[in-house]
Amino acid sequence: MPDQLRSSSATSPAFRDPASEGLLAKVLLILLGLAFLGFFLVLPLVSVFVEAFRNGFGDYYEALIEPDAAAAIRLTLLVAAIAVPLNLVFGLAASWAIAKFEFKGKSFLITLIDLPFSISPVISGLVYVLLFGANSALGPFLKSYGVEILFAVPGIVLATVFVTFPFVARELIPLMQDQGTGDEEAALSLGASGWQTFWYVTLPNIKWGLLYGVLLCNARAMGEFGAVSVVSGRIRGLTNTMPLHVEILYNEYNMVAAFAVASLLAFLALVTLALKTFLELRFGAGATGGRH
Amino acid sequence: MEVTISNIRKEFDRFPALNDVSLKIASGELIALLGPSGSGKTTLLRLIAGLDFPTDGKIFFGEEDASHRSVQERNVGFVFQHYALFRHMTVAENISFGLKVRPSSARPPKAEIRRRVLELLDMVQLGGLEKRYPHQLSGGQRQRVALARAMAIEPHILLLDEPFGALDAKVRKELRRWLREFHDRTGHTTVFVTHDQEEALELADRVVVMSQGRIEQVGSADDVYDRPGSPFVFSFIGESSQLPIEVKGGTVLFQGQPIGISEAEEGAGELFFRPEDVVLVDAPDALFGKVTACRRLAGTRIAEIDIANDGHAPYHVEVEVPLHAPVELRSELRFRPTRWKIFRK
Fold it and tell me: A-chain residues within 8 Å CB-CB of B85?
């Protein structure tokens, strides 16, 4: 009987899903969406790769192994390799504190974590220039001990850490708040130490969210332009990261080389998106609980 | 193990959640903490477990002062309201968790752990499910896994927070009976929190009735139902009605008129009685009012009666009437309580 009911309503033209539109509206809306997507996302992405391979694979390869480009790639990898683990630890600690404990000034702390999202990256870079520059209190002091912050790798790392700070924490806070402290209390009541509780209970509960946060954090760390461009000084082969290198090449009308390096960054973005999609497919929407 | 709670006070942000609570729990006893939400029953359970610490007062396990011991050191089996099973672990891994996290000197060998897990699974009647994950189990099964996990560490005392709160009525009844048998078999000192009086009265050796951070009464099911110690207990447990009265010359007066019952102690007070402790009479000295509704309740019939209160909102009382007695709506009914209690103001 239920089968009959279902088939009759499916074939009858008189009934339509109340949440659905007419055929014309459907086609128009889908076309509009596709056109927008193609024009603003697919076209630029394709053009990056087209430009990069304009003069063949040989030139593309040359542009990447050229010493300045290679140095920029190495520096970008180095900065990401320092900034991402740091923010992994910071983010984990911050979200642990916010989600599992009650204390005064909690909402202020949450606002503070969001700060790097809400101010322009150029300003973030300027803050470090003011803090460590030649006219600051700290800069000359550190310089007298031979420590260079500005226009050197430490400054780039600092700026990148600042800009990418919220990614892991933002991903984990809603997830951990949702999970509450029940599992941790259960583990403690069974005799587990604090460390065992974290390792065997808390971490497995958040691992996919954490991985996703790290992916986003990494993508941003490698792609950051504004803050890094202010503090780096753009010394070729020394303090040039990949995004800075792309801009320099572009300004020199070296299109193939510029797009070759840019294609690496674009590729990184695609890999990040693919991994994110994979995680969501594999572990459901709960894996990436954040709001990005 | 015997547990003694001595003058416990607990404040959250200066708001007192528990106020001067003392309680002695005998070894092997099954105790229910019963009260409305906000009465402090869960707070008391968490203080016994060591998941929270009292602002003032002491908790003894046996002769020893356990007040400053951490939750790990207290060795309590705690079953959480929503079970808090580790979702990424199988049933067997959940149950063995408490043994595996022990320092290597106190950890049983692998084969022994496995043997004990299977034994516990048999005990909670879940044999064969050790490889399942929590999300593959029904609510009642999860509850029993949580219990087995708590029992695995051979706790001094078993604490259960609203153990049947998240289950449907039928499973609830079954598990209730099952927990009673389980307790009788293992003999663990057990404390459970509930807001369901039926559950508390049926299951526990003694019921601790709590309200607003205080213990109102401790006693057996018969005690708290038949001999309620305070107006709160009388109205919280079972059905009851209350009326303001005055005792003059050994006679109870309602609105200045005798109602056919007598009491020794003089003065104003509040009369409490249960719907079933009422007899219909045909006499002038009785309570009377208009029947506003009549409903069938399982094997009995309950009449709702409004007693006029010149000009003010009428008093509302409920009395049980015989199934065969004809009771018409808006007719007048006269009755007297056969068992009652008067609480002084």
Answer: 186
